[in-house]
Amino acid sequence: MAGRLLLLRATTAALQLRSNVAARPLLRAVSTAKGIPTDEEQATGLERRAMQALKQGKDPYSILKPKQYAGTKEDPHIVPSIGNKRIVGCICEEDNTAIVWFWLHEGESQRCPSCGSHYKLVHHELPH
Question: What pLDDT does residue 115 have?
Fold first, then answer.
């Protein structure tokens, strides 16, 4: 810390010798430093868009855990898709290590061929 302070004083003194006007912005910038910026202050691009959407209560990139559905014919598992079909993997039992894969098509809900859980494909637009 003492080394930084010494370097800051030397830099400030050198700038004051050159021009008294040039030293003022440097001193102001150093003295108003608030510390480490937050994630929100330094986020850019897609990360910034996602953070702003989450503030508004939206989930455009499916970051949050999806809603749980019963898997019955009346309340099927919702599968978002940008096309009219999608491959789905069903883990039929909680401790099962095998995944049952099947194609899910747009329209009526379909059943898993192994356990009978219902899935429904819903058209979903891309967020960008």
Answer: 93
Mode of pairing for the β-strands spanning 118-123 and 77-81: parallel
| CATH number of domain containing 99 | 2.60.11.10
Q: Decide if pLDDT at 106 tops 80.
A: yes
Annotated binding site: 90, 92, 112, 115
Same domain for 91 and 55: no
Range of the domain at 47: 38-65
CB 85 within 8 A of CB 103: yes
Pair 81, 123: CB distance under 8 Å: yes
Residue positions forming the annotated binding site for Zn(2+)? 90, 92, 112, 115
CA distances 79 to 62, 100, 122, Å, are: 12, 16, 6
Instruction: State CA 30 to chain mean position distance.
Output: 33
Strand order across the beta sheet in which 77-81 lies: 77-81, 118-123, 110-111
pLDDT in tens, 6-43: 455 555 555 555 555 544 554 444 445 678 989 989 99
Cα 37 to Cα 106: distance, rounded to the nearest angstrom: 46
